[in-house]
Design a protein that fits this description.
The protein is mainly alpha-helical and 800 residues long. 49% of the residues lie in helices and 6% in strands. The chain has a domain of 188 residues: Alpha/alpha barrel (Glycosyltransferase), CATH 1.50.10. The N terminus and C terminus are likely disordered.
Length: 800
Amino acid sequence: MNRVRDPFNLHNLSLNRPGTIAAINILRATATTAATEFRDRAEKAAQQAVETAAKAAEFAEQAAERTRDAVEAAAKEVKRALDHTAFQSQSQSDLEQGTLLPAAAAAAAAEETYDEEDTEVEEEEYEQGGDMASFSIPRHVPSFTDPARQAEDRLWAAATRQRAGPVAGAGGVLGGVQDKVGGFLNPDRRSLPMYKDKPYGYGPGGARPRPLLRKKRVLGLFILVVLGLLWFTGFFDEHHERARAKLGDWGWLSSDTKARSKADWLKRRERVVEAMELSWDAYERYAWGYDEFHPVSKTGRNMAPKGLGWIIIDSLDTLMIMNLTSRVTHAREWISKSLTWDQDQDVNTFETTIRMMGGLLSAYYLSTEYPNLAPISDDDVGAPGEDLYLEKARDLADRLMSAFDTPSGIPYASVNLGKFQGLPSHADMGASSTAEATTLQLEFKYLANLTGEKDFWDRSEKVMKVIDDNQAPDGLVPIFIQPSTGHFHTQNIRLGSRGDSYYEYLIKQYLQTHKAEPIYQDMWNDALQGIRKHLVTYTENSGFTIVGERPSGLEGNLSPKMDHLVCFLPGTIALAATEGLSEREARKKPGFWNKQREADMKLARELMQTCWGMYRYMATGLAAEITYFKIPSDPLPESSSHTSPPDSIFDDPAGPDATWRKDYEVHQMDAHNLQRPETVESLFYMYRITGDVKYREWGWDMFKSFVNYTAVEDGGGFTSLSNANVIPPVIKDNMESFWMAETLKYFYLLFSPEDLLPLDKVVFNTEAHPLPVFEVGRLLKTGWERKPRTTTTTGETKSA
């Protein structure tokens, strides 16, 4: 069951439990840092509040002064309009008759507030220009002597007092300013107003409409305070806002609701987009242009003097697929203005090819074939920069080709980019990794197809001939090969590190050229039969299907060890079985489906379940880098009678004591999680091919675990874990480039409609960069043939 984050580990805290002291120390350090940061922010907030209040008070005093001046000017204008002498002699008699104008009565009351000197000057002015004849008495005026009027006065006064209370008691800076200004304009709000038809504080709105001047003043003050608060909280800092606004309140992490419609899956896909935005924006803010990003310390580091664009280029096509145009624009600008390969820097041939060259070629493909994905005018046909990605890829490829300058044609492990020089490995007696040497072909072949440069094709293809000429028994190749001789350097056979992608690229080379090179399908079929024969067995308690290792060769013992990297295999087996079609379509295709393809799909399903169990076994729901399995002392061969456990086995109410858990074992040194993509990659293939929604649900649970346990506070993005088997987990402070390049991309595609990048139209390189299926011509075609097989082995299975 997916756990909700328990920051203080209250339900599992035990001083005797391994890692508890470390967790407490981490908690103490985190709490101290948080307290210091909170204190600093509080002090800053208090200072800002005092400054804001002072400014507000000053503003209110200025507004009150302007209002006082306006009232005095208005009173003088009224006085000029009245015949002061006539008014004084007749006002009492007119008041008794009920004929005094309300305005005149107001003037009479206001007159008492003027001093004598001002009165004499104004009377002089009136005598020179005043004329009472311009005023007339209305026919109907209210009677102020009517006895019924007294009851009415008491009613209005009561209503006025009830509504004046809350206003007078308003709190805060705004309330105090409003009361001060309001008291000046109306010194006695509780007294009966002069106009009884519109008394103060009475009416449909519950209060008398404020004068326009006061409305503007209060509104302006309110806006000023709001803008100050927004500035203080960082609202106008674009990076800060983007980093904190994503993933909502994260309440969906604790939801176990199953998706029931296409709309539900699209909503889940949006969560993946938000995680991508959060990851990218954190990198953009704290480590832009650097090759490495440490999200906890919020720092970056370069692998070369001027940087290689390791994260930017590797993540570029993910941004394009997710249609994040503004971020693609920023990345493209960096590539255009800052990226250079002309640096005196040694780089790994394999990693640079699959990440940098593969990323650039994929970006070129998507920008030309899918112009509606993150459209940028600079990529349009005829635009000056339309070939930017291709030109950068070609420049890099020319430098990487120096790795192939070896006696055998097997590329060196490294290249100096600035010197165009291949370099043998500093370890393993100069040997190259077999997987690394044979995981360059998709990229160089596609580049050859784009440029017409046959040398890219020929030199990468020759590697496959040299490998196959060794005639490895049952198609299983050792993990090291010597560039100087072209011969294998060790007997160690595994589908984990240094062996995995050799098998992956066999079937993908066949699919890339529209099945025009069956030689690679033959090599794949041989290898898959060898895997079944020598590496597949079943666990002792629950019968999980695993793929082990042969460290001492096929005649040696079987080690029940699976790297997380091996979890690429179930998806690749399914892809090979249907050749990119859905299982339903493949079964209906005349003459296509057979018992072998049926058996391959069964094996793919069983291995997918085992890889899912690697996640369910861990405390965080995130798989370890390496998992060991309990197998019988005499391991069962793949051909033995076998029934896979049901998926419900993972929901055993026994929890930690469940029988199935006895088949899994994770060593302390192997409990780290590097945000690897292989399992979600296989889930993507399995869902696309089988249509079984359970693979989507498994993927959703995995995604929630990543968000729950690897998210970094304060908009730092996501990090790897040093220990994923404790809660809270021990963080590693590193975001791998394949987190955005592969893991999030496969989550996004898993939750997307099936017509987005269909498997019969594209092949994904081993870094998840989509490249197109293309037709080969006379120039570019398979230039070699396999030698007849002369070696084999019984490969009797023995236990380690």
